[in-house]
Amino acid sequence: MARYILGVDVGSTHTDAVIVDENGNFISGAKTITTPDVTTGIVTSMRLVLEKSMVNRDEIAAVSFGTTHIINAIVQRKNLGRVGVIRIGAPATRSVDPGLDWPEDLRKSVIAGYTIVRGGHEYTGENIVELDRDSIVKALNAFNGMGVDAIAVTSVFSIVNPEHELFVREEASRIAPEIPIVLSYEIGSIGLLERENATILNAAVLKVMQRAITALEKALSDLGLGHAKMFFAQNDGTVATKEYIARYPIFTVVAPISNSIRGAYVLTRISDAIVVDTGGTTSNIGVLRRGYPRESLEIEIAGVRTNIRSPDVIAVGLAGGSIVKVLGDSILVGPESVGYRLIEDGIAWGGNTLTATDIALAKGVMTIDDPRCRPELAKQKIDLVLVEKVYEKMVKMLEDSIDRIKTGPELETVILVGGGSAMWPRKLAGAKEVIRPEFAQYANAVGAATALIGASVEKAFSYESISREKAIATVIDEAKKRAIEAGANPSTLDVAEIEEIAMPYLPGNAVKVRVKVIGRLKL
Amino acid sequence: MMLSPQDVRDMALGAAILGAGGGGDPYIGMLMAIQAIEKGKKVELVDPDNVDDNDFIVPIAMMGTPTVLIEKIPGGDEVIWVLRSIEKYYGREANYITQIEAGGVNSMIPIVAAAYTGKPLLNGDGMGRAFPELQMVTFHLIGVKATPMVLSDERGNSVILDTIDNFWAEKIARAITIKFGGSAYIAIYAMSGKEYKRGVVKYTPLLALELGRTIREAKKRGVNVFDAILDIVKGFTLFRGKIIDVARFNLGGFARGEVTIEGFDEYRNSRVVIKFQNENLVAIKDGEVIATTPDIISILDIESAKPITTERLRYGLRVAVIGIPCDSKWRTEEGIKTVGPRYFGYDVDYVPIEIRIRGV
């Protein structure tokens, strides 16, 4: 029996679904409009691709989702859990309270209460002061009594020594066994406030994720896919099982962006390139390095600073549906967009709004496979000189963004993907070559469908108290454990990346070690 | 005037410009100050002209590594302990707190100290910008000693240092800071009102505040933000262009390197190289020096006018380089010897930026 994987990716305008075979070959794809509840669009896209592909449903072994459930919930402040926050760090850290720099409405809807207790570690792993165990027990009882939805725990330098956070988990399993506990050392990097923010947000969206999983499980079963294993795409271009993501939902917050970058690799097998993903509203420009998205350590989620790993991208409001405004000599393209209404409002569809797609159609660089689209309308209605001027401006905007994401002046391969990518020329400044692969419009869903299981672990050491080899081996072990937890087949585990960063101005060779392990899905 | 949380935010942004690319990110310090003020603590900014000759003035700051500051955030009491200890040692109560450094994170710590101790904050500092070493303050130029100084940690440990010179102060203070866990809060260059008035760079906190507010409001009012900035600091646009190379060499604890910027608009066909050691120190346009330390060289994002610190410089950023004349106290023989280009190892004479740019 053949085995197929179904991949779904949710964009701001469209939700895409594809089916690939076990070797990652594209079988079929379908697109539908993203719905406000996200789930309905996902279900529609799956139904469409199943019908189109005629693949036997029993042969779908796994379904992988790149979804916006989490980011939407945070941005819209919808269905967020109430979180009890424990910070371990007093007498240090009391000068900046948890949530201080959050947007006020988000803080009020998420943070049910907080306490800062004595404890935490120095960069060397020694205690700052002894852990105040009584206060932790008291806090757990209080949060239990309040009936919070989850508890978020952050201890100073827990990525050097997590023992104080682990103590809280231990106690909580006794005092409040029903309440999920999120520990910061499993979520973020060095930078107490950013890691604490990510940990609180993770705790706040546990329920949202659980609800999404339940809804999608039901959808799969309704579609006759109840047997298929369920995976979710993560921010770093890998996937993990639903059980793992149920505990770490924040790792999916920008996954769709990584899916496109990863999909560009799968469709071209070019492992180092600049990827331009053009949808209806936004173009995301990211970088492929060794087959994975180049990462950045700073990401602001709905106005909250965090330090979870995420793709390093530049987002520009310049895509298929971008509205073109001409005022005398000045031309404005985007960031306003007609989004999915392109097929009603665009000039080429008989509408009255001049869009970036109309310009590309009028210039004749783009064709659209839609019988309702009439490029000749755009050609008749838009002045030829204007077409040239606007198109030149659009290309220049894109080229500038590509240049900004580069790390040097060397020419790079540029891969164009996404539903709006057909509008770009095959030559761009700064590009060695410009490639728009077959199925480019489905790159994101292909990325979700073909991703491997991945897990990253970051720890800090002083190479004076542990040998370098032993330190790295420890992190590799832990990353492998996490990857197996995330659903990897243990015999296929591979260390994809080892990164060592020296912490400046500290004695004792203080070093941050990060290891990323990948493996094949256990199906 | 009393500082509001918005004033603190604006001041942090302005302080980053005066930081000349260094001085550390004011973010954590800014949050500390905002929390203190939001909880009802008051910070009064006072004109240095109001200082009496016999007053006792205490500059407060932090030292240590940025990695520790962002993880082991201060408790808040450290600044109280440093002040109490130095008062005890001198046997007199402080009248005012002041900044030693107008640029970067140390622009914020004295605000926190003023909030927690109730002492007024003076509207001045000891640099008018940011510099990396203990002796690089205008109070040093008039003979004020760095020690006796106090270092405190979050546990309540305090150490008093009385050293034979500032070199030993630096050396011993660093060692104590490491034992504290990588960061320490310090009271240093404690002095009389008379000395303060002779050595101070006046009105820099307010200047930072005005800079930050101008940037924040420029967009709303539809004015050119760069013109507004230059107007406030009496500075110059040195260059506009795109960063095409950043070379870094880590030597002796300093983030050394140089950034190359390729010009656009009226600067097309030109290149600027800026050499930095934590701070931007020398700017060279097409082989010709156009600005040097102690004048302030700041690199700003061309869209938002937000300052870019030297550790965040990277290929592809579109930037404007601005030059700001330093305080006249640095333009003395002793000043140039202490912080001029030759002190940092560049074989260039200091020429005031106005003369380099305008010839007068």
Question: CATH superfamily membership of the largest domain in chain B, which one?
Answer: CV3147-like domain
Unreliable sequence segments of chain B: none
Question: Which band does the percent of strand residues of chain B land in?
Answer: 25-35%
CA-based gyration radius of chain B: 20 Å
Could you please say which CATH topology of the domain at 81-204 in chain A applies here?
Answer: Rossmann fold
CATH architecture of the largest domain in chain B: 3-Layer(aba) Sandwich
Main sheet properties of chain B: 7 strands, antiparallel
List keywords for this structure.
heterodimer, A: 523 residues, alpha/beta, Rossmann fold, Dodecin subunit-like, 6-stranded mixed beta sheet, 15 helices, 25 strands, 33% helix, 28% strand, globular, B: 360 residues, alpha+beta, CV3147-like fold, CV3147-like, 2 domains, 7-stranded antiparallel beta sheet, 12 helices, 17 strands
How would you describe this structure to a colleague?
The complex is a heterodimer of chains A (523) and B (360). Chain A is α/β, with parallel strands linked by helices. Chain A contains 15 helices and 25 strands. In chain A, helix 9 packs across helix 14 (443-450) and helix 11 crosses helix 12 (375-381). The two termini of chain A are 14 Å apart. Chain B is an alpha+beta fold. Helices cover 33% and strands 26% of the residues of chain B. Chain B is built from 12 helices and 17 strands. In chain B, the strands form 4 sheets. A 7-stranded antiparallel β-sheet of chain B has the order 15-14-13-12-11-17-16. In chain B, strands 2, 3, 6, 7, 8 and 9 form a 6-stranded mixed β-sheet that branches. A two-stranded parallel sheet of chain B has the order 1-4. In chain B, helix 1 (5-18) runs antiparallel to helix 2 (27-38) and helix 2 (27-38) runs parallel beside helix 5 (109-117). The mean pLDDT of chain B is 93. Chain A binds chain B through residues 89-97, 100-101, 120, 122-124, 128-129, 156-157, 190-194, 403-409, 503-507, 510, and chain B through 28, 31-32, 34-36, 64-68, 70-77, 112, 154-156, 178, 181-182, 242, 244-245, 250, 253, 255, 314-318.
